[in-house]
Amino acid sequence: MRYGYFDDVNREYVITTPKTPLPWINYLGSEDFFALVSNTAGGYAFYRDARLRRLTRYRYNSAPLDQDGFHIYIKDGETVWNPGWQPVQAGLDLYRCRHGLGYTVIEGMKDNVFTRQEMFIPLGDNCLLARITLQNKGTEQKSIKVFPYVEFCLWDAMDDASNFQRNYSTGEVEIGERAIYHKTEYRERRDHYAVFWTDRTPSGFDTSRDAFLGVYGSPARPSAVFGNGCTGSCAHGWQPVAAMQFDLTLLPGEETSLLLGLGYIENERGNKWEAPGVINKEKAQAMMARYADNAAFDAAMAALAGHWTSLLSAYTVASGEEKLDRMVNIWNQYQCMVTFNMSRSASYYESGMGRGMGFRDSCQDLLGFVHMIPERARERILDIAATQFPDGSAYHQYQPLTKKGNLAVGSGFNDDPLWLIAGTYAYLCETGDFGILQEVVDFDNDPALAAPLMEHLRRSFT
Amino acid sequence: MRYGYFDDVNREYVITTPKTPLPWINYLGSEDFFALVSNTAGGYAFYRDARLRRLTRYRYNSAPLDQDGFHIYIKDGETVWNPGWQPVQAGLDLYRCRHGLGYTVIEGMKDNVFTRQEMFIPLGDNCLLARITLQNKGTEQKSIKVFPYVEFCLWDAMDDASNFQRNYSTGEVEIGERAIYHKTEYRERRDHYAVFWTDRTPSGFDTSRDAFLGVYGSPARPSAVFGNGCTGSCAHGWQPVAAMQFDLTLLPGEETSLLLGLGYIENERGNKWEAPGVINKEKAQAMMARYADNAAFDAAMAALAGHWTSLLSAYTVASGEEKLDRMVNIWNQYQCMVTFNMSRSASYYESGMGRGMGFRDSCQDLLGFVHMIPERARERILDIAATQFPDGSAYHQYQPLTKKGNLAVGSGFNDDPLWLIAGTYAYLCETGDFGILQEVVDFDNDPALAAPLMEHLRRSFT
Q1: Which of A242, B62, B96, B241 could pair with A180 in a Cys bridge, judged by C-beta atoms 3.0 to 4.6 Å apart?
Q2: Is the Cβ pair A60, B209 closer than 8 Å?
């Protein structure tokens, strides 16, 4: 059975059927904002920490599988389908997914409507961008309806998946002309909100899941899509979502595109509101303005490609063996960078709720990426060392949002601290930056206990 | 909108449409084994503790909603349906759900096949019993296939819903002629297993969810049911389930029944195996033998009805107001007993994972049920008091399986200990059993700190 192939020129893996044995995912994001995206547009987004700042809801081990994500519904007459096949699972006339370096492109066609869904996270920004390109490949005019849909997570993914008696009562949104703001707990205890935006005014929207899917409906059969369209619902509690409806007419051969974004915004405590109960949207509006047209989208995507070209240029091989070169020059290094970014804290098997980042894991992972980003390896070493206990032992893991250790799986693993030595050694070999050993670093994140990194290594060993 | 009515003679609430505004559930079980069952046969079962000993998996806040439970699929030609509508959601010619006192009966009919699904938990035993009665109401012979299906939970519901990198590798089953045994971790660390049995040999079975539903399938469209039948799969890791297939032929007017059970079995550590790697099934076989035919099923159901008649006879009113009498004589007391049994630790909004039983809640709940079961109220008072700290303060909640306090939401709530006085006072007023005040009870479950209950009350107040 063949599911796809490597495209070495474009540095992509191309998947040619949506029905892979299991969802095949890509990891988007290289700084603070991340998304997991499957070959059928399933997945979720988070800011820094897959447990504590999850933007969209994802149901692990669900049946049906992988139906939460970044889906687009196309309604063409009475036929409803998704370019990525899921969640409706309608048969497609064409399907292709390109998992590239920090981006994913899904193409689908049905009944002469061709759709391309490009997704990536721009450098230096906390948002997922998507461009939906639609083209009428037929000889007759097409009137179609397009519905993007995301379901919000109420920030703490563990609480979101367990504390229903509380979190069914907390959901809040604000609705703008081209944007839906998710602001659950912003009033009470948070200084961040999410925004789902578009570049044109939709003809309809929903922010209540029950309104869009139907109480007994599902992502595979949203009642608004299969029925009479979005209802203009405003979520109060229950499940806030962002769904929009666009009614488009395409002449034969005509192509149009729709720009979408999902952003994370933090405001200072003193600057949270623009009016009583109305969130301050300045930063969100600035974010939307940065990606307001196709040229801006293309430029951000080109910058990301350049970033990867630069990262991968530090170490290359030309062995004459196509498969060896492909792995060394592209995919192994890409995987090492993903491991740097996520430190195995979130995948389709690691729920992102249970572990944070591992002390041992993160030290080991350094060996794979230190040559690509030595300055961030340096920062990582110091972050890890700062969680170490004064007696040289270590929390087994730490939370990326707070950079503080947690005891979820205990501490006192004998080998944990030794890996800090191995990671630092790898950094020294790569950079010759022996000055790092003199950096003063907290123990247990307590500045009163700080000591040079060299002293951390000494205590690791004794 | 009218969804049902009270049947006072049978002490039932009768629901006449599956599409209630949300699932309407009943609570089965009165001792150690419990199940939540919705009006469409959704829900789950657990032994004592909804977090630590959950037998079947239930996805809260799922979309689609309430598709995990105790479902029966009927395949009649190419038409697939469920007597309770969910999860296939095929239209029914007749639907009725009777939520009674500790039992639920769901009836559905389609294309002249009438099905009744009766469910209850017998007194004194750790199992959920179900009887599926099928009748051909038409004038032609019917050949149908019947598939019962449950998905197992890997015991700890919180871990089951979060620790996938581990629990996808642990699932284990054993397959008998008329029974499927779920024994995940029985070898390594558990002395309990679950058994799903039937009274006749099925023509097929599955124990792997992926085999029965399909990797991209769902409970709404199991590939084995919509396709060519069960595959005989044996789960190793991933998701163990119990699915069976029965091929039945019914003459016009003919009726047949199928007995099913889902049981929980504990073995002593020294007596776990009947052969290397083969679990000791003695107790399971004895359990199955206890409910081997319709007469045994009926007798157990009658015993449960007698139990409820006895409980409700302690306090009755005849006011001449139908609605007042109904609430006082049946439903309020029933609800108070459910509260005794579950102490709000598991419902369709309380996930059963987060809190265990509340110290304050359980003391308050005593006031509602003490007149029905004073001897169990006595036991509950002593259990609660045993979790109290020596200084009179209290854990806010405790785990019903271990009867030990947990700090999941902290301790030191000022009013918690005062409710122990209120609960004990209610018990004394009802029973006059002042001897309870001299009962010696642990503090913090430590026998070295034990003192008379009266001393607990004194410390609660000071």
Answers
A1: A242
A2: no
